[in-house]
TrEMBL record:
<comment type="pathway">
    <text>Carbohydrate biosynthesis; gluconeogenesis.</text>
</comment>
<dbReference type="InterPro" id="IPR004643">
    <property type="entry name" value="Fe-S_L-Ser_bsu"/>
</dbReference>
<dbReference type="InterPro" id="IPR029009">
    <property type="entry name" value="ASB_dom_sf"/>
</dbReference>
<keyword id="KW-0479">Metal-binding</keyword>
<dbReference type="Pfam" id="PF03315">
    <property type="entry name" value="SDH_beta"/>
</dbReference>
<dbReference type="InterPro" id="IPR005131">
    <property type="entry name" value="Ser_deHydtase_bsu"/>
</dbReference>
<keyword id="KW-0408">Iron</keyword>
<dbReference type="GO" id="GO:0051539">
    <property type="term" value="F:4 iron, 4 sulfur cluster binding"/>
</dbReference>
<keyword id="KW-0456">Lyase</keyword>
<protein>
    <recommendedName>
        <fullName>L-serine deaminase</fullName>
    </recommendedName>
</protein>
<keyword id="KW-0004">4Fe-4S</keyword>
<feature type="domain" description="Serine dehydratase beta chain">
    <location>
        <begin position="10"/>
        <end position="80"/>
    </location>
</feature>
<keyword id="KW-0411">Iron-sulfur</keyword>
<dbReference type="GO" id="GO:0003941">
    <property type="term" value="F:L-serine ammonia-lyase activity"/>
</dbReference>
<dbReference type="GO" id="GO:0006094">
    <property type="term" value="P:gluconeogenesis"/>
</dbReference>
<dbReference type="GO" id="GO:0046872">
    <property type="term" value="F:metal ion binding"/>
</dbReference>
<dbReference type="InterPro" id="IPR051318">
    <property type="entry name" value="Fe-S_L-Ser"/>
</dbReference>
Length: 215
């Protein structure tokens, strides 16, 4: 697989967001990856294990990637002035944090794996920062999410599924895991996923989170 799968989607992706930190890929993108994990997990974990690959593994300390990931998991946005102190803030909240580096080859240099862990539940996701603050989810619970256009959503009501199906064109649902009292689904779609479509799905009763796999 080539980096052609990792696409910029707009001029904003090149300019990047307003952010705290030296690099849109290593800071803003990392915060957004943490935000993605937070939206699915919905609370601060007791333990966070972060494994960096490629360029991230070489520069995560100097470029602020480590604090950015933690900030995102805490729910901070890319412009939050608390980002530089995120690790200290998390530890004061009782979060045990472990940073690891891996020499395993990945298809993109800025790859990171997050494990959010509590006594009875765990979320494992892998994502990449593709530049300009844009990110792409590549795996959730070891299930690949790289096939075409995709959404990850959580629901606590099975009755929500037909409504999601009606909102999407020829969706293929894959049940990824149980998390809290909700089910995490990955959906591959034929058409592009607009913000308007994401907002429409969020309004469906029983839908508790909706995340495009690229954004």
């Amino acid at each position: 697989m080539s980096d052609k799968k990792f696409k910029y989607k707009s001029a904003f992706d090149i300019i990047g967001p307003i952010m705290v930190g030296p690099s849109s890929s290593h800071t803003a993108g990392a915060v957004r990856i943490g935000n993605m994990a937070r939206e699915l997990y919905k609370h601060t974990p007791q333990k966070l294990i972060v494994t960096f690959f490629g360029s991230f593994a070489e520069t995560y300390k100097g470029h602020g990637t480590a604090v950015a990931i933690v900030a995102g998991v805490l729910g901070f946005e890319t412009h939050d002035e608390r980002i530089p102190n995120a690790i200290e803030i998390a530890e004061k909240q009782g979060v045990k944090i472990e940073f690891l580096v891996s020499t395993k080859e990945t298809e993109h240099a800025n790859t990171v794996n997050l494990e959010l862990i509590d006594e009875q539940e765990k979320l494992n996701l892998t994502a990449i920062s593709i530049g300009g603050g844009s990110i792409q989810l590549t795996e959730i619970n070891h299930h690949s999410t790289l096939q075409g256009n995709g959404l990850v959503f959580t629901t606590d009501q099975e009755s929500a599924l037909p409504c999601v199906e009606n909102a999407l064109e020829s969706p293929e649902f894959v049940e990824v895991q149980q998390l809290n009292k909700e089910t995490v689904f990955f959906v591959e779609t034929v058409s592009d996923i607009s913000q308007k479509l994401v907002a429409k799905i969020r309004e469906i009763p029983g839908i508790t989170a909706v995340l495009p796999t690229t954004g």
